[in-house]
Amino acid sequence: IGSVLGNILSLSNASISVNVLSTEASSAGAIIAHANATSQLTLSDITVFESDVQINGIGTSLGAGGLVGVLYGIGHLFSNINVYDTQITSQSSSGGVIGFMSQTSGTLTLNNLEVLNTNILTSLSSTTYGAGGVVGTVSGYTLTLNDALVEATVTSTESTNAGGVIGVNRSNSTFIFDAIRVNQTTVRIYGIGTSLGAGGVIGKLLGSNHEFSNVRVIDTLIESNSSSGGFAGYASQSGGSATIENIKVDQTNITTTANNSVLGAGGLIGFNQSYTFIISDVYVNGLIQAENANVGGIIGYSRYLNMTLSRIVIFADIIIQNPGNTDRGSGGVVGRNRNGGTVDVIDLLFTGYLKAYAPLDLPYAGVLKANDTDLNITNVRSAQITYYTVGDPQVDVNSDILYNNMRGQNPDYATTYKDLRSELDANYWTTHFINITSSSLWAYNLTTNLYEPIS
Predict the structure, then answer these.
(1) What is the per-residue pLDDT across 238-253, written as a single tens digit (0 to 9) for each?
(2) Per residue in 371-393, pLDDT tens?
(3) pTM to 2 decimals?
(4) Measuring CA to CA, which residue among 200, 264, 255 is closest to residue 227?
(5) Assign residue 388 a region: left if phi > 0, alpha if psi is -120 to 50, beta otherwise?
(6) Strands (E), 133-231
(7) Which residue among 1, 6, 236, 286 is the one 20 to 30 A from 351 at the CA level?
(8) Residue 159 phi, psi dihedral angles, 5° rounding
(9) What is the largest CA-CA distance in the chain?
């Protein structure tokens, strides 16, 4: 279908392999190119495979999608949607299912989705649009997404946002996500910009009242020359709020190649400004690195942040590759917490490597944060930390002197630190982290000696 204009349309039990090309500035989709504001779609049991959807023209209100190019309208329902072995390319918003969706008070419920072995690319240069494994750009909608699996390559060749699920959402949209898995996915931005984001789930997060639960980002590569995060690359919204619970970022490399004091790479969020986050039951395992920007196990760089973190395990290498500035930090939780609001951290363990700038043998690194405003803590512990700087050998932190040499905020060495991660047996966890060990969401890993959320 080229355009749906005012129709209530139901389509089910369809399979298609197709090449769709728009040579000018028109939208393109493997099933529907465009659905207008008075349309209502019910799409179920749809498979798109071995297809090519491409727009050669340029336009910010265009979309290239594995299912629908541009979606307007209210009350849509998509279920049992599969997009396999497909290429989606545009100079606008590109998405594995929908390229661009925009409708004030619009609603879309999307249940049971797979986007596999699919390449999604945009060459648009704009900080307010993006490419996403499911949707490129969302505006105005309440999007409910349940039970989704994405294994894809999402690329912005210019300065546009990119996300494993969503490229960017506007400030008037709301997300309710449950049971989301991003696996063996590459999310990459080649352009440069200080307000862009590359994220395992969302490239650039705006809006408020979001709810995210049961999210997994596994064996994924996230890279940009702006801000990069295991969950979201860039988050900024005055009065914005999000609840994130039961999330696992595992065996994932998160990188920013920026040299900038207000950008970052984070296990969950690269850059945050003015959001209120409630984050619980989180496990981060991977490499989090920057050329010379802030890096953190949860957030790389934050400003005016209000956050509650509870039941957190971070097992990561948090590295500034070429540290050379005192306004950058490498922190187990936050790299740089500038003009911080109220940040409460309850029941957290960090273990890993920290690499940072270190004048006078005092590295800008810490278990909690490395630079600027302190965090409020209850039961924060660490095990087998190593820190090092450019040209220096790695230093295994095994004494209170070395521990206190770390310039960032660190809990008391004597009561919170274990020399070796191998000593973190089940008894240790039961004794010190009863809120984790008593939860049905967590299980003990005999190989890592860490508790992890059950996959």
Answers:
(1) 889 999 999 999 999 9
(2) 999 999 999 999 999 998 877 78
(3) 0.98
(4) 264
(5) beta
(6) 135-139, 142-156, 160-163, 166-169, 174-183, 186-189, 197-199, 202-205, 210-218, 221-224, 227-229
(7) 236
(8) -95, 70
(9) 71
